[in-house]
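ingest -> validate -> predict -> emit
validate: passed (alphabet ok, no gaps, 244 aa)
predict: started
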Amino acid sequence: MTTTKYKRVLLKLSGEAFSGETGFGIDTSILTQIAKQVKQVIQKGVGVAIVVGGGNIWRGAKAEQDGMDRVTADYAGMLATIINALALQDALEREGVTSRTQSAIGVQQVAEPYIRRRAIRHLEKARAVIFAGGTGNPYMTTDTAAALRAIEIEAEVLLMTKNNVDGIYSADPLKNRNAKKFDKLTHREALNMRLEVMDTTALSLCLENNLPIIVFDLQAPRSIERAIIGDPIGTLVSGEKENG
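emit:
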C-alpha cells in the first residue's frame, strides 16, 4: 500500500465540478470518477470528508443581482448543495463506499444534522462524510464552510479542486497567457496578493489555524490520490515555517 502523507483530509468540490462540460446540472460520469477516486483514497486508510458547493444549480449572487433578497438567495443555494450531496452520496454508495450526508440546515428525511463528534466517528469507521448546507448561515460561502469543517474535524489538509486549472496563478490562466503559476505560497502571501484561492474569510481561517491548502485540477489523472500521498500537484498554500 502506498504511504500517504495525510490521514484525514477535507475535499472541497465546487458546484461546477458536478456539471462537467455542460456548465449546469449534474454529470453522472463526473460523479462516478470522483467516487472512484474517493474509494481509492479511503482504501489507503485516509479519512475523507467532503464539502460541496451548489453553483451548478443555483447562483445566489446572480439571484441577488436580479432583485432577490440576499438571505433568501443564500438559503436557496444551501438547498442546491444538498441536491449535490445526495447525488454524490449515491455515486459513492454505488462504488461500495459507505457514506453519510450531514446538513447544516434541517432536512431530516434525507440527511443527518451536522454533529461534529458524529462526523468524526463516521470518519474513524472509514465512511465518507459529505457536508451540505454550507455553514447554515447566509453571507457565508461554501469555501468558508470547507475551512471551518476541516478545522472542526481536525483534517490535516484542505484539498481545493478546480476545473481545468492546475493551481494558483497570478491571473486567470484561461484569459491571460502570461499568468504565472505558483508552486508554493504562504497563507499571508495569498491574502496580500488577493489571489483567487478562496474567499478571504476562509483563507483567514486557514491562516489562523495553520491549515495547509492544496489547490489542484480535479480532472488531472489520479489527482486526489496524488494530493494525499504528497506528490507535487497544483499549488501548496501553507504556514510560514512549512512553506519557507
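The mean pLDDT is 92.
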